[in-house]
């Protein structure tokens, strides 16, 4: 059985395991039911975006969808256990729908308003539930932020696996990684907003640092393994992959902060240009 057939079988299993009919599953992931049927029958492929939506809706990872395991070796670094959503479980369906809805709502509110301006009562109101229901799943507001960070890690991991698993050329993969990290409008900008707030909390409260270190380490390892693969393929001439990774990730963070804080002249487009120039000069041609 090839990878595509395995993928279809896993998604069929999720459709059957989730409550509701197939049309409700299709609606939940934002896909026309006819297109879902064709993808499950093998007459069309699931797009990267669709794979991410399936994973998000079902509480699984794209790595599991494609490779049958959350820990399978893939084109991007796998999150450390401490950086995974606390509700992750080997059966892949342990994350309850109420908990998932609460986390998604809290994550969006934190990204939009800021961590310190979001109350548990605000999350409850947005979810149409009680504060007691929120506390049942998240005992404290700190735990909400911890899970919001873990959700950021999962979203990035899912997106990278979905987009990059079919790209063999390391140069093309690195450029795509940069593209997936630009703070454009929508989910990516919201992820950056949550990261900025986590950085602030980490600077003030050491209790956040272990989770943050595990989370940021996954991104660093992803860039590093891509650069090393490029050296092996002969497309990168960089002499010190670790140093190049440190500089590139620092440049991404710095430029991203400038975009989010509205520094005059900064934009996602200019950020892309700066990063592509750095990659060409320091990694492709060598430092």
UniProtKB/TrEMBL annotation:
Top-level lineage group: Bacteria
CDD domains in the record: HTH_XRE
Gene3D superfamilies (alphabetical): lambda repressor-like DNA-binding domains (1.10.260.40), Tetracycline Repressor, domain 2 (1.10.357.10)
Positions of the HTH cro/C1-type domain: 22-65
Annotated HTH tetR-type domain residues: 96-156
InterPro entries for the chain: BetI_C (IPR039538), Cro/C1-type_HTH (IPR001387), Homeodomain-like_sf (IPR009057), HTH-type_TetR-like_transc_reg (IPR050109), HTH_TetR (IPR001647), Lambda_DNA-bd_dom_sf (IPR010982), Tet_transcr_reg_TetR-rel_C_sf (IPR036271)
Alphabetic keyword roster: DNA-binding, Repressor, Transcription, Transcription regulation
SMART domains cross-referenced by the UniProt entry: HTH_XRE (SM00530)
One Pfam family matching this protein: HTH_3
DNA-binding region: 119-138
SUPFAM superfamilies on file: Homeodomain-like, lambda repressor-like DNA-binding domains, Tetracyclin repressor-like, C-terminal domain
PANTHER family: HTH-TYPE TRANSCRIPTIONAL REGULATOR RUTR, HTH-TYPE TRANSCRIPTIONAL REPRESSOR BDCR
Protein name stated in the entry: TetR family transcriptional regulator C-terminal domain-containing protein
Organism of derivation: Amycolatopsis nalaikhensis
């Amino acid at each position: 059985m090839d990878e595509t057939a395995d993928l279809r079988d896993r998604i069929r299993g999720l459709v059957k395991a989730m409550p509701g009919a197939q049309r409700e599953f299709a609606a939940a992931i934002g896909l026309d039911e006819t297109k879902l049927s064709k993808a499950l029958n093998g007459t069309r492929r699931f797009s990267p975006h669709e794979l991410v939506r399936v994973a998000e809706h079902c509480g699984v990872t794209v790595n599991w969808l494609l490779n049958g395991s959350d820990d399978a070796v893939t084109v991007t670094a796998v999150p450390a256990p401490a950086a995974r959503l606390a509700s992750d479980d080997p059966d892949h369906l342990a994350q309850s729908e109420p908990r998932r809805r609460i986390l998604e709502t809290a994550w969006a509110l934190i990204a939009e308003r800021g961590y310190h301006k979001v109350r548990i009562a605000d999350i409850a109101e947005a979810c149409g539930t009680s504060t007691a229901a929120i506390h049942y799943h998240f005992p404290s507001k700190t735990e909400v932020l911890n899970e919001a960070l873990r959700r950021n890690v999962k979203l990035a991991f899912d997106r990278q696996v979905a987009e990059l698993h079919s790209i063999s050329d390391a140069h093309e993969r690195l450029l795509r990684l940069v593209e997936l990290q630009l703070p454009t409008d929508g989910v990516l900008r919201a992820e950056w907003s949550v990261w900025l707030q986590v950085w602030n909390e980490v600077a003030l409260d050491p209790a956040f640092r272990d989770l943050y270190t595990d989370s940021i380490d996954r991104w660093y390892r992803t860039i590093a393994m891509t650069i090393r693969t490029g050296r092996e393929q002969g497309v990168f001439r960089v002499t010190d992959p670790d140093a190049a990774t440190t500089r590139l990730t620092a440049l991404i963070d710095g430029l991203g902060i400038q975009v989010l804080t509205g520094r005059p002249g900064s934009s996602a487009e200019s950020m892309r240009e700066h990063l592509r120039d750095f990659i060409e000069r320091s990694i492709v041609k060598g430092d």
